[in-house]
Amino acid sequence: EVTKDWNGADQVAIRSPRGASVRVCLHGGQVVSWRNDRGEELLFTSSKAIFRPPRATRGGIPICFPQFCQFGNCGTLEQHGFARNKIWTIDEEAPPLNYGDNNNNKASVDLLLKPSEDDLKCWPHCFELRLRVSLSTDGDLSLISRVRNVNGKPFSFSFAYHTHLSVSDISEVRIEGLETLDYLDNLSQRERFTEQGDAITFESEVDRVYVGSPGVIAVLDHEKKRTFIVRKEGLPDIVVWNPWEKKSKTMADFGDDEYKQMLCVDAAAVERTITLKPGEEWTGKLELSVVPSTNCSDHLDYPGRL
Ligand code: BG6
């Protein structure tokens, strides 16, 4: 099903037989909504979001490529790269999945971004970035990105799924799976620290890149008694961001109190850039699911878990 969004940029919606849904916008290849089978929105979108290309909408899952923040050697590129600000196309070469075909339990949509003349002026590398967004019959969301070097020379990039989770109250949220890891702190010139706490909780601004993180982590929302399970492949880092009170007030597209209902947990390749030789391809995968908090330990099989 293809529908139009508020500004005429195409959106694609997938609905599972049980009523879960996901909406993806061709502007940015951005997932702008993910709902469970009770119709509850699981991603945060700001009430102040500006739905006007070429800026990415504040919320959902913008794709950060070919750089994240100013990490990587991308010269003067804009913050988080240009992919989130561009109009993608439907990838006609990728046959979409449909529920029930060959007994699969997913439906998908495939998008494609290739550089424009202008993009090549800022970042002179020919690439193809393909994104498959799929929704399982259980309502699990998966994003698979593939970057191919169709250039004559190697290039390097960083990447992130800038995932804005909707939470009930940030003070009641904790992340498990990042304890004892090293992180680069964006709030102190990317100085390297080691996480000391048992789990990560929030009482002030946080902007960190946890490096070499496990393939699965959990974001527990105590008040809602539900847990986001974040699984990733090909993406060694996890960025954790909440602007808190003071920073929120400086952001034009973010409400003053909305930091209480949002937590960004981004599967990313940031600390070390990815290098592709001509003809090579890289794949980065994110899977999000939601489980009742009482069952979440069944999903956390990462090494070192207590
Ligand atoms: C986070 C970064 O992921 O995104 C922060 O770690 C940044 O440093 C934040 O401030 C928001 O970025 P943007 O470009 O979406 O406003």
Give me the secondary-structure topology.
Blueprint: E1 2-4, E2 10-15, E3 21-25, E4 30-35, E5 63-64, E6 89-90, E7 106-113, H1 117-122, E8 127-136, E9 141-149, E10 155-161, E11 164-166, E12 173-176, E13 182-185, E14 191-194, E15 206-210, E16 216-221, E17 226-233, E18 237-242, H2 244-248, E19 262-276, E20 281-292
Antiparallel strand pairs: 1-2, 2-3, 3-4, 5-10, 6-7, 7-8, 8-9, 9-20, 10-19, 11-19, 12-16, 13-14, 13-15, 15-18, 16-17, 17-20, 18-19
The protein binds 6-O-phosphono-beta-D-glucopyranose.
6-O-phosphono-beta-D-glucopyranose is lined by residues 69, 79-80, 162, 186, 207, 239, 241, 264, 266.
Throw out a few tags for this protein.
306 residues; binds 6-O-phosphono-beta-D-glucopyranose; single chain; 4% helix; disordered C terminus; mainly beta; Beta-galactosidase, Chain A, domain 5
Indicate the low-confidence ranges by residue numbers. 302-306
Radius of gyration: 18 Å
Instruction: Give the distinct bound molecules.
Output: 6-O-phosphono-beta-D-glucopyranose
The percentage of residues in β strands lies in: 35-45%
Q: Tell me the series of helices and strands, N- to C-terminal.
A: EEEEEEEHEEEEEEEEEEEHEE
Give the number of domains: 1
Query: In one word, what is the shape?
Result: globular
Main β-sheet, in a few words? Answer: 8 strands, antiparallel
Helix content: under 10%
Task: Please name the CATH topology.
Answer: Beta-galactosidase, Chain A, domain 5
Count every helix, treating DSSP H or I runs of 4 or more residues as helices.
2
The strand count comes to 20
User: Distance between termini?
Assistant: 44 Å
CATH architecture: Distorted Sandwich
The CATH class assignment is Mainly Beta
The chain-level structural class is: mainly beta
